[in-house]
Amino acid sequence: MELIINSVSYYIREHADAETKQPFINIVRQFIQKVVIGKTPGHQPASLEVHGQIASILAAMEAATIMEKRFEALTRHDYLEKVRAGELETEAKKQKLLDAYAEELPLKRLEWPSAF
Questions:
Q1: Residue 51, SS3?
Q2: Which residue of 8, 37, 63, 88 is most buried, as measured by CB atoms within 10 A?
């Protein structure tokens, strides 16, 4: 999904005329209530604060990324514990466990949005 959005954004920004861009601009404006640009000391870049639905979407995406990293860390720990315990002495057993993790991750992703 991210790749598709980035591709469409690039195409519209670089190759579309103003008439083609306008509907997309209107969609983006619906998600953004206001943008606050703050001063920072010295030559630091200005701070940027976005309010509106887009802020909620970005926060949910960040939380989902954190949950995914946490899942990966837990499965890595579980995998290493099973290796140490001698439960994964064959490649077939290792692959079976890795496949189970791979099947579990998409199911977890579906659960995470409801947790926020």
A1: strand
A2: 88
